[in-house]
Design brief:
There is one protein chain. This protein has 14 helices and eight strands. The protein is an alpha/beta fold. Strands 3-2-1-4-5-6-7-8 form an eight-stranded mixed beta sheet, sandwiched between helices. Helix 9 packs across helix 12 and helix 10 packs antiparallel against helix 11. The relative contact order is 0.08.
Length: about 300
């Protein structure tokens, strides 16, 4: 098949390579002409604009967006849609909010354009290992574009989730679970690091991946990171959140579903960004006032 691909960052460029390796024709566009040139040298057909990308595709076209969620997706669809023809499809493979995907699908349908929301997991390892794909939208469009998904995913690594928004809803919850898993590993390894024993944490991570209940790919990556930097001295404990964790917690509040672990893991990320917590200062001050406990000065 042929596919237009907009956004050639770390994941987009790797996806283009995997698709070309599977025999698909890729027409690629990115605001960075250097990036377009690099992907072109790997075999893609480069485009210098959205107009050029659309012109190099044959109807019914399919265009996959790998751009940041929010305004970049909104602006790209707003510019792209008028260039397309009835029957063409836009695929959002980024981490968009599922309610935005529902709205975009309904808006594009008025112009007889199709929309698929594809939750994509795999990160920088996707080129080699494949991408896990959670796909929402019209089932008929999913079936038409299925060869694309088959190439991007590992064996049995993609599935149709349901109507518009279902793919991004599934990916939102997936990332919320990821928050909780990361926090559990973080707390466990922090306690190990503080233990009275001289534990080799990389070796312990390797050991736990040999038959233990907590074995996982994340633990394999933990082993790799600790082997390269045993004390993680080169890394600052500042943790961003990319949006899905917040959306997961907000959805849980809206639906009355208890998510204590995921919710607290999100709040812990907020705490990691504070140089000095005012809340912690309040607690220290109160302990001094009611119990005469010592405080540390700045």
């Amino acid at each position: 098949m042929e596919l237009g691909l907009i956004g050639l960052g770390r994941m987009g460029a790797n996806m283009a390579q995997r698709l070309m390796g599977g025999g698909h024709r890729i027409v690629a566009y990115d605001r960075s002409l250097e990036t377009v040139r690099d992907v072109g040298q790997a075999g893609a057909t480069g485009a210098g604009s959205l107009e050029e990308l659309v012109g190099k595709l044959s109807p019914p076209r399919a265009v996959w967006l790998m751009v940041p969620a929010g305004a970049p997706v909104e602006e790209t669809i707003h510019s792209l849609a008028p260039l397309l023809s009835p029957g063409d499809a836009i695929i959002d493979g980024g981490n968009s909010y599922y309610k935005d995907s529902v709205r975009r699908a309904a808006s594009l349908k008025k112009h007889r354009l199709h929309f698929l929301d594809v939750g994509t997991s795999g990160g920088i390892w996707g080129l080699k290992m494949g991408y896990c794909l959670m796909i929402g939208g019209e089932r008929e469009v999913f079936r038409r574009l299925e060869p694309i998904f088959q190439t991007l995913a590992p064996e049995e690594g993609y599935a149709y989730m349901g109507s518009s928004g279902a793919g991004h809803f599934a990916k939102m919850v997936h990332n919320g679970i990821e928050y909780g898993l990361l926090q559990a590993y973080a707390e466990g390894f922090e306690l190990l690091h503080a233990s009275p024993y001289e534990l080799d944490l990389a070796e312990l991570a390797r050991l736990w991946n040999r038959g233990s209940v907590v074995r996982s790919w994340l633990l394999e990556l933990m082993e790799k990171a600790l082997a390269a930097d045993p004390g993680l001295a080169s890394i600052k404990g500042y943790v961003e959140d990319s949006g899905e964790g917040r959306w997961t917690v907000l959805e849980a509040v809206e639906r009355g579903v208890p998510l204590p672990v995921i919710s607290l893991s999100l709040l812990t990320r907020f705490r990691s960004r504070q140089e000095d917590s005012f809340g912690a200062k309040v607690i220290a001050a109160l302990r001094r006032e009611f119990g005469g406990h010592a405080v540390k000065s700045e």
